[in-house]
Write a structure and sequence with these properties.
CATH topology: TIM Barrel
Number of strands: 8
Number of helices: 12
CATH architecture: Alpha-Beta Barrel
Number of domains: 1
Bound molecules: 1,3-dihydroxyacetonephosphate
Helix content: 40-55%
Order of helices and strands: EHEHEHEHHEHHHEHHEHEH
Strand order of the largest sheet: 1-2-3-4-5-6-7-8
Distance between the termini: 17 Å
Radius of gyration: 17 Å
Shape: globular
Structural class: alpha/beta
CATH class: Alpha Beta
């Protein structure tokens, strides 16, 4: 059986709870009954509850958070744990987004801890990897991305791996309008799948879903998602508009 595609919207630090509710309602109206792929929306922490209520009747749309803290609870002022996300209706959580790595010092070891903590609470992690422009230009993409995959997923069981999603997001393509070509993205997705095979075996690698992220729009979604190793998209800017996000979903998962 083929891998079911998964398209997630990362709203980043945008929208108040009320604006989040409105966007979610519009999405339900646009793609509420669309079952050809899994759809995930990831508002800010403060928007989670409003979005949870807005999508309650749409079983094809799932709720995700953009981050979590690795500890279960305790004296970590301002942080949110996996069980709190579960209690707010989340089934997914983005981990190790390049903005977390770049602005908040997250590294592969922390990404691994957060991934394990998410899985232990029953959340499905979307683990992000990807190279900066410097790394790409110096020919280091394959080595870096393989390392991010190996370290980020180290120690996971087969059952845990089956609940995990990877997102390849080249940093130079995020929010820049500079999308990777389908061939560039496919090449890296293949490296990722081959690293998964080396670490965890062919069966895990074959079943693993790997999203592409970085300036995905309705006019490039189909071409990217038609690549054999691209199993979905992690969409930033274009997920803030319901009609645009719905178009990505319909074109990418036709
Ligand atoms: P853009 O789609 O805005 O380039 O953002 C991609 C991204 O970072 C999704 O997590």
């Amino acid at each position: 059986m083929g891998r079911k595609k998964i398209i997630a919207g990362n709203w980043k630090m945008n929208k108040t709870p009320e604006e989040s509710r409105q966007l979610a309602m519009q999405l339900v109206a646009e793609i509420g009954g669309f079952n050809a792929c899994d759809i995930v929306v990831c508002p800010t922490y403060t928007g989670l509850e409003a979005v949870r209520n807005a999508i309650a009747g749409a079983t094809n749309i799932h709720l995700g958070a953009q981050n979590l803290h690795q500890e279960k609870n305790g004296a970590f002022t301002g942080e949110i744990s996996a069980s709190m996300l579960v209690g707010t209706g989340c089934t997914y959580v983005i981990i190790g987004h390049s903005e977390r790595r770049q602005y908040f010092g997250e590294n592969d070891a922390l990404v691994n801890q957060k991934t394990k903590s998410a899985l232990a609470a029953g959340l499905k992690p979307i683990v992000c990897v990807g190279e900066t422009l410097d790394v790409r230009e110096s020919g280091g993409t394959e080595k870096l991305v393989r390392e991010q995959v190996r370290q980020g997923l180290a120690g996971l069981t087969e059952a845990q791996l089956a609940s995990t999603v990877l997102a390849y997001e080249p940093v130079w393509a995020i929010g820049t309008g500079k999308v990777a070509t389908p061939a560039q993205a496919q090449e890296v997705h293949l490296w990722i799948r081959s690293e998964l095979a080396a670490c965890f075996g062919e069966a895990v690698a074959t079943g693993f879903r790997i999203q592409y992220g970085g300036s995905v729009k309705s006019d490039n979604a189909a071409e990217l998602l038609n690549q054999p190793d691209i199993d979905g998209a992690l969409v930033g800017g274009a997920s803030l508009d319901a009609a645009g996000f719905a178009a990505i979903i319909k074109k990418g998962c036709a």
